[in-house]
């Protein structure tokens, strides 16, 4: 099909690359190539903001190494060839069901990577694949990321998706731990132009304090920066909680259970005790506690540096404990809950973890998933339920999961593997079949996940900007056909698998909502859009919402038509107080002292005086990277080598390091270029993750290979309650190469 248009033309779309959800204005030439990318100034949320990754979307889109057809690997020669969709699905249909037939459903594992949180296909069609596989061998990037926050939120509020975010635009005081939004643009806190919002906070007279073992660009923008020993944030926060109780500074304004238990738990975590472990002086901890209590409004926000650590879940819990104790949970300027416009999953029972354990190490299930830190164990350890085949969707765990080299060899030994991915990379090279999604511009976009964590209520929908060509499949179609293939089924003649699935979901959802007779009213070019329309209509601002409970001008109005008529996005108003309505705890109160958290205190207490390793490793994100997968975009990898080991000059001198160093951990060894800098505290070194492309088929990435930091991280270490991987505070030894 040729697509005839005037040239050039300007089109609008949300950037799918990170959690900031910026509106983009794209200019396309007559061949549908992206010739320019600008921020969309009419977007009420991002207001024209754009970063270097969004700005180079055209380069990503035209990358000659991006896969455009299914690929099949010949195992004997380890060579790849392109194939038709029918052939690719045929191979899967023949091989994968054999594995589950012979060894049971658990023998087929599924790994879901980060971009699933950014795509419509990930939100709407991955659940179908999960059901089709019927396996408990389910893993995702979440357990290398935010699972501690979800577990803690689940325990406190009854729902792991009810996550409080700092009310950035109104707060008077922000305490930020383990986040670097000037590079990352923010996470579990959807805030386009995060840097601008932080500057505005200071300009309106607010105070901004950063806690990080590195003096990051974010720290440099703050009023105050505190170096903290990696992995010790739970102690620091307990010191604050202790002070709030000791000095009678608490001001609890929401209905809670467990206040006395929290007070008792904090009793022995005096600022003096925790100062030794954290490296933050006791008087500073006391002062921060007083400042938080005294500020008219304040929010504590902690992100990945504190999640991917030994006490990840305890830390996330204590963040909200402080927000509650200072009277800042669910109040403007504090930590609040966003109202996403699309109908979410309605949870009927309170959240629980560890409903089952992993086969080999007995690690806890959380949200139906097992920890990715035990994926290699499950593949490598013989026995009933051993994983023998894998499906990966939008992930690169060889570079992103702990003990990456071990996972690499585990994947190499699988009987069969399928990957849905744009690239042949360090992980997908082990697949037998790779199924590529189409161009980003050929996919619709709605942020089902991220808008629930936004600092302002907002909605925006982007239609596919370019139609699919002859023989091209949307990622939704790929997943629908994959779900059939893994069940050993062929599409029925004359029936589109995607439509079949969508009709079932639509009928079921409308029936539950008592709206079955309104099926005919759903708008959209296809059943995917009709589902989106349905979710908007049934969502909190929707035309069909049962309880419009506030004055927002959009309440009771949203549907797909409204979003299509407002292509720059819709401002749905500032965050609103949502308690107790969003609580799913059995008590319908905030459970401030969940037994799971109190039980984990033993581990925390045991380690408070433990001897600390001389040197520990932490990560660092970089503005022009995106985990492992934008290193083939020329403009993002130019300049000097970025995959260097940051080390304090004192440590470098003491250890006699310059040029190349050999870094050893319990898990592995790397040789890496050292970069001494005062911006990192003594005793800590930092290496970015997502690099290590020396064998890549991607030519640009191979020329800027770097090393895989996750060769050093150790999959035997996890945060106990969530099973989350530990990337920060990894003991290492350093010698000159
Ligand atoms: N040491 C260390 N390790 C870390 C972290 C750290 O801070 N330190 N961070 C962790 C975090 S927070 C995360 S989220 C994980 C990320 O872990 P992963 O999700 O496993 O890794 P990514 O590099 O994001 O890989 C994304 C993959 O999706 C593909 N892709 C991109 N767009 C699409 C699409 O639209 N559809 C499909 N099907 N595929 C697509 C890319 O080609 C790439 O292969 O890494 C974790 N690993
Ligand atoms: N440019 C870019 N943007 C991204 C990504 C990317 O790879 N590149 N990845 C995206 C993803 S998947 C995510 S999850 C988000 C993450 O977004 P952020 O949470 O902002 O992640 P980082 O920028 O890695 O910041 C983590 C900080 O924690 C610090 N840190 C390490 N250990 C500790 C510790 O023990 N305690 C404390 N207090 N701090 C510690 C590190 O020094 C680092 O500065 O970013 C997203 N945005
Ligand atoms: S900040 Fe994130 S969403 Fe915005 S342009 Fe950059 S990559 Fe895209
Ligand atoms: Mo992430």
From TrEMBL:
UniProt source species: Nocardia terrae
Domain of life from the UniProt record: Bacteria
Gene Ontology cellular-component annotations: membrane
Protein name: Molybdopterin-dependent oxidoreductase
Metal-binding among keywords: yes
GO function terms (MF aspect): 4 iron, 4 sulfur cluster binding; metal ion binding; molybdopterin cofactor binding; oxidoreductase activity
InterPro entries: Asp_de-COase-like_dom_sf, MoPterin_dinucl-bd_dom, Mopterin_OxRdtase, Mopterin_OxRdtase_4Fe-4S_dom, Prok_molybdopt-oxidoreductase
Span of domain 4Fe-4S Mo/W bis-MGD-type: 8-65
Keywords from the named record: 4Fe-4S, Iron, Iron-sulfur, Metal-binding, Oxidoreductase
